[in-house]
Design a protein that fits this description.
The chain has 306 residues and is an alpha/beta fold. The protein has 11 helices and 12 strands. Helix 7 crosses helix 11.
């Protein structure tokens, strides 16, 4: 029998690449949308589908072309929607409507843990809440993944935070809940493999919890190099220039959100990546230099048995 096919939207983005990778590792035939026919996805063992994932006609064509009956939906407030909540909602609805028209058997929507509990200033989560409601009323067979802060934000050159040897920066020094984007994909694989258990349900993706000093200690242990923990910017600048993100972090810092725990997620994915695991998995600093100097120590977690 051929491997089941999955169409992943926004497959070349920060989350999409590792979701594709995890689904491929779990035995799926993965098709990923890309706006240009590059080798980025092919190099990951993913079938590239030239598609503007924000356009309904393109989505209809991609689903017809691939024959995929499983779909992973990512919406992007900051880039694809141009920081406009209404636009992100329209794009998410287009994906859900296309899935319904194509007879998709299982759609997984990536939302955010506790999205409905952040205050009104956290604008970039408003569309996630609206789209969860739209999906639940759509008649499409669905499940929802709700990740927390990404480990990948520790190495984010596009947002002026490249990971450098001997230092790790983040927008908070305080305790935070993290996940690896690869684990979002592994959680999706579990849901796709077990629809009877997961259809109509949500899962918080939370792999590890700790403050930035613990993150630095993890990197130091993996790299063998002393590591300092520093704020990516002073808190008063975070408040002035990143109001949306600032209020998101206030929820993390003052209300100790999200409500989910690593222990609960590990009941589903026992080998969810810790900070140490993620640095080994990520493998390199922003300049391309290996984090682990000794040859052969770079690794990734084994695919979970299903």
């Amino acid at each position: 029998m051929s491997n089941p096919s999955v169409l992943v939207l926004n497959a070349t983005g920060k989350v999409g690449r590792n979701v594709c990778r995890a689904l491929r590792d779990a035995g799926f035939s993965v098709h990923g949308t890309t706006r240009s026919n590059t080798h980025t996805l092919s190099s990951l063992g993913v079938n590239p589908v030239v598609c503007n994932y924000t356009v309904r006609a393109d989505l209809d064509r991609a689903l017809a072309q691939t024959g995929a009956r499983k779909m992973f939906v990512i919406t992007d407030y900051f880039a694809a929607a141009g920081k406009k909540v209404g636009v992100e909602i329209e794009q998410g609805r287009a994906a859900i409507d296309a899935a319904k028209a194509a007879g998709v058997e299982h759609l997984i929507f990536m939302s955010v843990a506790d999205a409905e509990l952040f205050d009104e200033h956290v604008v970039h989560l408003h569309a996630k809440v609206a789209l969860e409601k739209y999906l639940k009323a759509s008649g499409v067979a669905y499940s929802i993944l709700r990740p927390c802060a990404f480990f990948e934000n520790l190495d984010d050159p596009a947002n002026w935070n490249p990971l450098k040897k001997g230092i790790v920066k983040f927008l908070s020094l305080q305790d935070c809940k993290f996940c690896a984007t690869y684990d979002i994909g592994r959680a999706a694989a579990i849901q796709f493999h077990n629809p009877d258990q997961w259809l109509g349900k949500t899962l918080d993706v939370i792999g590890w919890q700790g403050d930035l000093s613990q993150v630095a200690a993890a990197l130091q242990k993996v790299s063998g190099v002393p590591v300092k923990a520093k704020l990516a910017m002073p808190i008063f600048l975070r408040r002035l220039f990143l109001k949306d993100i600032h209020h998101m972090f206030l929820y993390y810092e003052e209300q100790k959100g999200p409500r989910g725990t690593p222990e609960a997620f590990k009941q589903i994915l026992p080998d969810a990546l810790s900070a140490e695991d993620w640095f080994r998995f990520h493998g390199r600093y922003a300049n391309g230099e290996p984090i682990v100097a000794k040859e052969g120590t770079l690794s990734k977690p084994p695919p979970l048995g299903y």
